[in-house]
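Side project, low priority. Logging it here so it doesn't get lost.
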Amino acid sequence: MEENNKISVENRINELRNIRAKNVRKLTKLLSNMVKIEWEIVSSAQKMDDNISRISAESLANASNAIQGAISHLISTKTDIKQNDKIKKNTTTDISSLKSTLKRSKLMS
């Protein structure tokens, strides 16, 4: 039983890694396209002396920064499911102790 649980945890970790890698590839492609478009807008804004295009290019730069942050989160976040299980167990234990404390305090009142 424990071995099956261990295998399912490993499968879950592998699924998460594959999904995250796929999302990183998609976001990287999107980021690359956004940077190309940003440079096109900046170069045309300089040629035409267009302040609105410069502002829109700045907005694209901010969006690109947000996408870089999303990529960083996907890459740097651990896929440790066991840690989540421990958190759930601790939470359940804490809730149980709180319930018993409340019952005792009601009995004392």
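Brief comment: The chain has a mean pLDDT of 82.
Revisit when time allows.
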